[in-house]
Each structure stands twice: as C-alpha cells, then as structure tokens.
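Most newcomers find our protein records easier to grasp once they have seen one. Nothing more is needed to start thinking about how sequence determines fold. Here is such a record, shown just as it appears in the course material:
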Amino acid sequence: MEPSQPARSRADLADVRILIIDDDNVNAMLARSVLEQLGCIIQISSNPVKALEKYARDKDTIDLVLVDYFMPTLDGGATVDHLRKINPQIKVLLFSGADEMRLRQIIRQHSIEGYLHKPLRKEEARQAIREIFPARSEPVASA
C-alpha cells in the first residue's frame, strides 16, 4: 500500500485571462512569468493602440488588463479610459514603478481597481487579483 499523498491544489488563479499592456518588453515578460506561475493565462501587447484594437476584438476572452502607466504613444490613463468605452465593467490594474502617492492619484482619477509595482512580485499580484476575483482564488483539491 502506497503512503497517501497530500491533496494538491490547482494553481491559485487558474484561468484568469490577463492582457498585459506595457511598452517595456522585459517588464512584460517578467510579469508574464510571475502571473503564469499563479495559473493565469497571459497575452502581451507592447503598443497600447494595438492593445485597444485587440481588446475590442477579444474582450470576451480577457478578464483583466494590466496597464503600464508611462508609455510613449498613449499613457495608461488614456488607455484605461478607452478600455472603459469598449467595456465599462473591465477590470484593470495599473502596473508602474511610480511612487505610491502618484499611483493612488492615478487609480482614483481613472477608477482603476488597484495597482502593482514594477518589478511584479508574486504575492502582491496574487493578493491584488484575489481581491478582484475572489471566487476564482479558492484552491480546489484534486483527488
């Protein structure tokens, strides 16, 4: 008889579909790695204008958008405003290296759900996404 193994839970945030909009590919790829460890399904766009086109086309397959604030063609605030025109219920997290006071001002100004600091840290991401999707964050034991 084999010793019993502890029940393993699925990835914390399995199947949360996230679009990352960040003109810095290194930060976007690091964020992708962290979020995939949490079980999220990730898409990346380095161009906010193209990201808006993508979101308009695929909004039913995206649960959350992670938006960099400082981008050359269209800043994060304007990007969020355009996203909300497409889908007023879109869930957004700001993704920036700005200081906390500035981030809080931006999220109030654009009605953003929250923010994550660069570089993305796993526990900070887990907590922020759990607050947005509490039902999806319950671990499920597998038999």
About this structure: The chain is about 40% helix and 15% strand. The domain at 17-133 is CATH 3.40.50.2300 (Rossmann fold). Confidence is low (pLDDT under 50) at residues 1-10. The radius of gyration is 16 Å.
